[in-house]
Amino acid sequence: xxxxxxxxxxxxxxxxxxxTVRDFVDKEIIPVATELEHRDEYPQxxxxxxxxxxxxxxxxxEEYGGLGESLLTYALCVEEIxxxxxxxxxxxxxxxxVAYMLKQHGTQEQKDHYLPRMAAGDVRGAFSMSEPALGSxxxxxxxxxxxxxxxxxxxxxxxxxxxxGTSSLxxxxxxxxxxxxxxxAAAKPHKSMTTFLIEKEPGFGEVRPGLTIPxxxxxxxxxxxxxxxxxxxxxxxxxxxxxxxxxxxxFYQMMDGVEVGRVNVAARGCGVAQRAFELGVSYAQQRHxxxxxxxxxxxxxxxxxxxxxxxxxxxxxxxxxxRKKDSGERNDLEAGMAKYLASEYCKEVVxxxxxxxxGYGFSKEYExxxxxxxxxxxxxxxxxxxxxxMIIGRRLLEEYRFQG
Length: 404
Fold this sequence. Notes:
Elements: H1 12-39, H2 44-53, H3 71-84, H4 86-105, H5 108-119, E1 125-128, E2 144-148, E3 151-162, E4 169-175, H6 182-187, E5 193-199, E6 205-208, E7 211-213, E8 227-238, H7 250-286, E9 288-289, E10 292-293, H8 298-326, H9 332-357, H10 367-378, H11 385-399
Parallel strand pairs: 1-4
Antiparallel strand pairs: 2-3, 3-8, 4-5, 6-7, 7-8, 9-10
Helix pairs in contact: 1-3, 3-4, 3-7, 3-8, 4-5, 4-7, 7-8, 7-9, 7-10, 8-9, 9-10, 9-11
């Protein structure tokens, strides 16, 4: 059992789940991850294995066929999976954000219709906020839904959908000015947004009338998982596909889901950093210079000490953010801190492990090369470091308001 990143207070069931996932990662993911990643190949066999383990229903309530586990259990599982291959944890993340949004905000009919199939892994979820010209400014969304009788007509282009091709259910945030004057919509854009649930066929091209998923975006890292655009051109949806049944609540529904996503990204950062540390500390004991293993050189020991401390600190903050959300309390401060710290520390730990490997770290034969290309995605996913600092700063000013 590794000494780092242990979590106190887990139940026997949680420990059993994590042991099962870690065993799966060690046997089924790590041995094939680098080869699949270099081919940019979707890990179908791994995904099928996760489905058999029931992980697609991990946080879905038992009444809908899921395991009914906590966000903490989910985050710890993600940490283990990302330790094996970060792309696999991305396949699960968007699925869980959609399932969480349905559980928290869906109508009873929507929960009954989607959650049992999502728990079984038969329906895979993706969610979409970003657009080509949007960046971090969600209020600038231009994709739009217009009411037409008993239906809505959606038009617009979305960007950066993880699982855009392989998913069969997409939660999409669009502007819907229904019930608002143009002046009101301009003054309070967040109140003029609605989340729609779009069912589609997996694959690329026109996946349903009015909806096109172009081919995969070619990325520096984070390969295997498909990242795509989504184009809506006269897409018609019935009114019962509005999440929660009421328009104008989409921004708040998405932000609730993104808090879960930020804990997930923090967990991914922890997992990748753990793997980088494992690779670095192992290589340092095998590689010899000046007549002894480089691990015996003080400069390398200092690096290992710093790496391990960052792994431990990031894990502790991620666990705290997950437990805060599980308690029912607001956790945007904790999730923002955890995501910010874990992603930054992950990048630093991976780079130090890369440096320990020396020239061999630049070779595709070594696993650290893959991690070096994967870590930067965590600096951007679910909000950049700058966005996290804005969230953290605003919440701190709320908590520590000057009483003059």
